[in-house]
Amino acid sequence: MSTYWDSYPNFVHNPTAPVQKEFKLLVAQCGWKVGGAQYKREWARCGREEFIRCFGSEEKGLGGWQGLCATVGIEEIPNSITQCKKVLRTVWVNIFDLVDAKSTGQPAKTHASADALRKYSMKKKRIFPKKAAKGNPFLKVLLIEMFL
């Protein structure tokens, strides 16, 4: 399976590095203006493609839902998609942190509440684009309102 990074053959990607760190290196190499239109478009594409690489996009497969539960640290993995969705709605985790957890092998950082996740995501500039998330059933379960 190809990755976002394969689109840039001159970029030497470290597959065990956090996605935001790698993206910053790519931005510097490509000369994109931080916060500019291309930067925002590429950050959204990077997040979407790397999430799909790590977790897939097939909502009908129980394995994908169970893998997502395991990555966020749920100890008793549900045995149905409905139960997986239910338990995932009670976990506050940054989507980019999920991708990093898969890449780095480190546990995904969870938060005590939606508000705590919102503050963390804004402070760290790790806001997953809503439009990119809405097309993936896994991501829809994890979305929170970022801008109140």
Q: Distance between the terminal alpha carbons, to the nearest Å?
A: 37 Å
- Using the CA coordinates, give the radius of gyration: 15 Å
Query: What level of helicity do the residues show?
Result: 40-55%
Spans of at least 5 consecutive residues with low confidence? none
Average pLDDT score? 89
How many domains make up the coordinates?
1
Give the strand order of the largest sheet, numbering strands 1, 2, ... along the chain. 1-2
Class by SSE composition = mainly alpha
Number of helices: 8
Rough outline: globular
Strand content: under 5%
Query: Main beta sheet, described?
Result: 2 strands, antiparallel
Number of strands: 2
Order of helices and strands: HHHHEHEHHH
Question: Could you explain the architecture of this structure?
Answer:
With 148 residues, this protein is mainly alpha-helical. It has one domain. It contains 8 helices and 2 strands; from the N terminus they run ααααβαβααα. It has helices at residues 19-30, 37-55, 62-71, 81-88, 95-104, 114-124, 130-134, 137-142, and strands spanning 92-93, 110-111. A two-stranded antiparallel ribbon has the order 1-2. Helix 2 (37-55) crosses helix 5 (95-104) and helix 3 runs parallel beside helix 4. The mean pLDDT is 89.
